[in-house]
Amino acid sequence: MGKKKKKAAAADKHRLYQASVQGVEFELDFLEQVFRDTRARKPSLLREDFCGTALSACEWAKRSRNNRAIGVDLDADVLEWGRRNNLEKLGKAAKRVSLLREDVLQVQTEAVDVCVAFNFSYWVFREREVLARYFRNVHHSLVDDGLFFLDIFGGYEAHRTQKERRKVDNFTYVWHQAKYNPITADMQCYIHFEFPDGSKMRKAFSYHWRLWGAQEIRDLLREVGFERSTVHIQAFDEQTDEPLDEFYPTEVAEDYASWIGYIIAEK
Ligand SMILES: C[S@@+](CC[C@H](N)C(=O)[O-])C[C@H]1O[C@@H](n2cnc3c(N)ncnc32)[C@H](O)[C@@H]1O
């Protein structure tokens, strides 16, 4: 009799990632609401940059027969995983999703209503000039009243090494800020997964990022031609201090230990 396979060895890292990191339904509801409020119409064509498994692109196409999505990622393996596990489950809606294996710095697509770059993926561009090139490409890829959605995190706990654990279903998600250089704001982060049988999947995902600040991102967005940008930050419950599924636009916030938000840039 063989030994029982340890949970970590049997687990699929993309499935664990989707279950622990992504809140796609909420994110797309938020996007639709903000688009309606800002542009008084419904968006239909969405581009998901750094799409990974293309969960947002697939969910977008599923929402309405009028919706279409384009997913862009450099990594052929993650795109293939998304094709098999997310796209093929869509049935007819799958025809309304295209996945492109391309660099977001160079990709050229038809003009889209909305472009999203989520889970801080654009932080992979650590030089201002390179990030500006990316933002220029997005600006060029949007229709005249298009919107660009980015997410961001901050707070003093972002500027230090630390580990954060969160229980998800039958495993634990670990966010590990392993290195932080306060001079360049370069950071090395990992996602690990831990299981009740004691097994671990260490460094399932690895990110070498620059911790960009909200205002420097907004300055750069303006510099490349976006008319306006708004920061929506996550609300906290006043009694329990727990984060709520609610984001509000503001120019002023408290110096929270950690916060997350969205930057919405208007073409
Ligand atoms: C943090 S994951 C984001 C996955 C997904 N967007 C999400 O919201 O969870 C970052 C992804 O960006 C991709 N990536 C990194 N640099 C890229 C580039 N220059 N062009 C396109 N994709 C890139 C990686 O292959 C990886 O799948």
Give an account of the 3D structure.
This protein has 267 residues and is of the alpha/beta class. Helix content is 28%, strand content 36%. It is built from seven helices and twelve strands. α3 crosses α4 (55-63). The longest helix has 16 residues, at 24-39. The model has no long low-confidence stretch (mean pLDDT 95). Residues 21-22, 50-52, 72-75, 78, 103-105, 118-119, 121, 124 line the site of S-adenosylmethionine.
Short description:
With 267 residues, this protein is of the alpha/beta class.
Helix run count: 7
The CATH C-level class name of the largest domain: Alpha Beta
How much helicity do the residues have? 25-40%
Give the ligands present. Answer: S-adenosylmethionine
Present the secondary structure layout.
Layout: H1 7-10, H2 13-21, H3 24-39, E1 45-49, H4 55-63, E2 68-73, H5 76-87, E3 97-101, E4 112-117, H6 128-141, E5 142-154, E6 162-168, E7 171-181, E8 186-194, E9 200-210, H7 214-223, E10 228-236, E11 243-249, E12 259-266
Key structural traits:
267 residues; alpha/beta; Rossmann fold; 2 domains; 4-stranded antiparallel sheet; 12 strands; 36% strand; binds S-adenosylmethionine
